[in-house]
Protein backbone atom coordinates (compact mmCIF):
# COMPACT_ATOMS: atom_id res chain seq x y z
CA UNK A 1 0.00 0.00 0.00
CA UNK A 2 2.86 2.33 0.83
CA UNK A 3 4.46 1.85 -2.61
CA UNK A 4 1.16 2.63 -4.27
CA UNK A 5 0.74 5.87 -2.27
CA UNK A 6 4.32 7.00 -3.02
CA UNK A 7 3.87 6.19 -6.71
CA UNK A 8 0.56 8.09 -6.84
CA UNK A 9 2.03 11.19 -5.17
CA UNK A 10 5.11 11.05 -7.42
CA UNK A 11 2.85 10.88 -10.50
CA UNK A 12 0.75 13.82 -9.31
CA UNK A 13 3.91 15.84 -8.56
CA UNK A 14 5.39 15.02 -11.96
CA UNK A 15 2.19 16.04 -13.74
CA UNK A 16 2.07 19.27 -11.74
CA UNK A 17 5.66 20.12 -12.72
CA UNK A 18 4.89 19.27 -16.34
CA UNK A 19 1.81 21.54 -16.27
CA UNK A 20 3.82 24.41 -14.76
CA UNK A 21 6.57 24.02 -17.35
CA UNK A 22 4.01 23.86 -20.17
CA UNK A 23 2.27 27.00 -18.94
CA UNK A 24 5.56 28.87 -18.64
CA UNK A 25 6.53 27.84 -22.18
CA UNK A 26 3.11 28.90 -23.57
CA UNK A 27 3.34 32.30 -21.88
CA UNK A 28 6.88 32.81 -23.19
CA UNK A 29 5.91 31.67 -26.71
CA UNK A 30 2.76 33.78 -27.07
CA UNK A 31 3.96 37.01 -25.47
CA UNK A 32 4.81 39.74 -27.99
CA UNK A 33 8.51 40.21 -28.52
CA UNK A 34 8.49 43.96 -29.05
CA UNK A 35 6.34 46.95 -29.83
CA UNK A 36 3.90 46.45 -32.69
CA UNK A 37 4.62 47.92 -36.09
CA UNK A 38 2.52 51.04 -36.67
CA UNK A 39 1.05 51.92 -40.06
CA UNK A 40 1.97 55.04 -42.00
CA UNK A 41 -1.45 56.66 -41.38
CA UNK A 42 -3.19 56.49 -38.02
CA UNK A 43 -6.60 57.75 -36.89
CA UNK A 44 -7.11 57.71 -33.13
CA UNK A 45 -10.39 56.38 -31.72
CA UNK A 46 -11.33 57.94 -28.36
CA UNK A 47 -14.39 56.64 -26.50
CA UNK A 48 -15.50 59.09 -23.80
CA UNK A 49 -19.06 57.82 -23.30
CA UNK A 50 -18.28 56.15 -19.97
CA UNK A 51 -15.88 58.79 -18.68
CA UNK A 52 -12.27 58.20 -17.74
CA UNK A 53 -10.89 57.49 -14.27
CA UNK A 54 -8.44 59.94 -12.76
CA UNK A 55 -6.09 57.14 -11.65
CA UNK A 56 -5.76 53.45 -12.38
CA UNK A 57 -7.75 51.16 -10.17
CA UNK A 58 -5.90 49.58 -7.26
CA UNK A 59 -7.78 46.30 -7.62
CA UNK A 60 -5.25 43.46 -8.02
CA UNK A 61 -7.60 41.63 -10.38
CA UNK A 62 -7.64 44.61 -12.79
CA UNK A 63 -4.12 43.59 -13.84
CA UNK A 64 -5.67 40.56 -15.55
CA UNK A 65 -7.67 42.76 -17.95
CA UNK A 66 -6.96 42.38 -21.63
CA UNK A 67 -6.91 46.12 -22.35
CA UNK A 68 -5.04 48.59 -20.17
CA UNK A 69 -7.25 51.08 -18.38
CA UNK A 70 -7.07 54.56 -19.95
CA UNK A 71 -6.91 57.46 -17.51
CA UNK A 72 -7.47 61.16 -18.16
CA UNK A 73 -3.76 61.93 -18.02
CA UNK A 74 -3.05 59.05 -20.44
CA UNK A 75 -5.61 60.43 -22.89
CA UNK A 76 -4.23 63.98 -22.67
CA UNK A 77 -0.64 62.75 -23.12
CA UNK A 78 -1.68 60.58 -26.09
CA UNK A 79 -3.44 63.53 -27.75
CA UNK A 80 -0.41 65.77 -27.17
CA UNK A 81 1.92 63.14 -28.65
CA UNK A 82 -0.44 62.68 -31.59
CA UNK A 83 -0.20 66.41 -32.31
CA UNK A 84 3.51 66.06 -33.02
CA UNK A 85 3.37 62.62 -34.70
CA UNK A 86 3.30 62.91 -38.49
CA UNK A 87 1.65 59.48 -38.89
CA UNK A 88 -1.45 60.56 -36.96
CA UNK A 89 -4.03 62.14 -39.26
CA UNK A 90 -6.67 62.95 -36.64
CA UNK A 91 -9.03 61.71 -33.97
CA UNK A 92 -12.60 60.42 -33.95
CA UNK A 93 -14.29 60.60 -30.54
CA UNK A 94 -17.53 59.15 -29.24
CA UNK A 95 -19.18 61.42 -26.70
CA UNK A 96 -22.15 61.46 -24.38
CA UNK A 97 -24.02 64.26 -22.66
CA UNK A 98 -23.10 63.17 -19.13
CA UNK A 99 -19.52 61.98 -19.17
CA UNK A 100 -16.85 63.17 -18.51
CA UNK A 101 -17.07 65.73 -15.68
CA UNK A 102 -16.30 69.42 -16.15
CA UNK A 103 -12.66 69.23 -15.01
CA UNK A 104 -11.95 66.30 -17.31
CA UNK A 105 -13.85 67.98 -20.14
CA UNK A 106 -11.67 71.10 -19.78
CA UNK A 107 -8.44 69.09 -19.86
CA UNK A 108 -9.56 66.98 -22.83
CA UNK A 109 -10.93 70.04 -24.63
CA UNK A 110 -7.59 71.84 -24.35
CA UNK A 111 -5.78 68.74 -25.67
CA UNK A 112 -8.20 68.52 -28.62
CA UNK A 113 -7.63 72.21 -29.40
CA UNK A 114 -3.86 71.63 -29.38
CA UNK A 115 -4.36 68.70 -31.76
CA UNK A 116 -6.45 70.87 -34.08
CA UNK A 117 -3.81 73.62 -33.97
CA UNK A 118 -1.30 71.03 -35.22
CA UNK A 119 -3.42 70.58 -38.35
CA UNK A 120 -5.05 67.24 -37.49
CA UNK A 121 -8.75 66.60 -38.14
CA UNK A 122 -11.06 66.12 -35.17
CA UNK A 123 -14.53 64.60 -35.39
CA UNK A 124 -16.92 63.98 -32.51
CA UNK A 125 -19.97 61.70 -32.64
CA UNK A 126 -22.77 61.47 -30.11
CA UNK A 127 -26.14 59.76 -29.99
CA UNK A 128 -27.55 62.61 -27.93
CA UNK A 129 -26.48 65.50 -25.72
CA UNK A 130 -28.84 65.63 -22.77
CA UNK A 131 -31.72 63.50 -23.95
CA UNK A 132 -33.03 62.95 -20.39
CA UNK A 133 -31.07 65.67 -18.63
CA UNK A 134 -28.54 68.43 -19.19
CA UNK A 135 -26.00 67.78 -21.92
CA UNK A 136 -23.89 70.85 -21.28
CA UNK A 137 -20.69 68.99 -20.31
CA UNK A 138 -20.69 66.75 -23.36
CA UNK A 139 -21.49 69.58 -25.73
CA UNK A 140 -18.83 71.79 -24.15
CA UNK A 141 -16.25 69.11 -24.92
CA UNK A 142 -17.69 68.60 -28.41
CA UNK A 143 -17.33 72.31 -29.17
CA UNK A 144 -13.54 71.82 -29.37
CA UNK A 145 -13.91 69.44 -32.30
CA UNK A 146 -13.81 70.58 -35.89
CA UNK A 147 -16.92 68.59 -36.77
CA UNK A 148 -19.69 67.30 -34.48
CA UNK A 149 -22.02 64.57 -35.75
CA UNK A 150 -25.25 64.00 -33.86
CA UNK A 151 -27.55 61.09 -34.57
CA UNK A 152 -30.57 62.40 -36.55
CA UNK A 153 -33.00 61.52 -33.74
CA UNK A 154 -30.63 62.70 -31.02
CA UNK A 155 -31.57 65.54 -28.67
CA UNK A 156 -29.58 68.56 -27.56
CA UNK A 157 -30.46 69.65 -24.04
CA UNK A 158 -28.46 72.62 -22.80
CA UNK A 159 -29.05 74.21 -19.41
CA UNK A 160 -27.51 77.18 -17.71
Architecture blueprint of SSEs:
Layout: H1 2-30, E1 42-47, H2 72-84, E2 88-95, H3 102-117, E3 121-126, H4 136-142, E4 147-150
Parallel strand pairs: 1-2, 2-3, 3-4
Helix pairs in contact: 2-3, 3-4
Describe this structure in words.
- The chain is of the alpha/beta class and 160 residues long.
- Helix content is 41%, strand content 15%.
- It has 4 helices and 4 strands.
- It has helices at residues 2-30, 72-84, 102-117, 136-142; strands at 42-47, 88-95, 121-126, 147-150.
- It has a 4-stranded parallel beta sheet, covered by helices on one side.
- Helix 4 links the parallel strand 3 (121-126) and strand 4.
- The radius of gyration is 24 Å and the shape is elongated.
- The model has no long low-confidence stretch (mean pLDDT 85).
In angstroms, what is the radius of gyration?
24 Å
H-E string: HEHEHEHE
Largest sheet report: 4 strands, parallel
* Mean pLDDT score: 85
Strand elements, count: 4
The span between the termini is: 84 Å
Helix content: 40-55%
**Which regions contain 5 or more consecutive residues with pLDDT less than 50?**
none
Number of H/I helices: 4
Shape: elongated
> Which structural category fits the helices and strands?
alpha/beta
The strands making up the biggest β-sheet line up spatially as 1-2-3-4
Amino acid sequence: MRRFLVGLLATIGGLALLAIAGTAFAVWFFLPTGPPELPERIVLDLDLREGLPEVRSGDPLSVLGLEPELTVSDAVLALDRAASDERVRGVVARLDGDAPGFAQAQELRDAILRLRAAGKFTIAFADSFGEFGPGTRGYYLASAFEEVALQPLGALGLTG
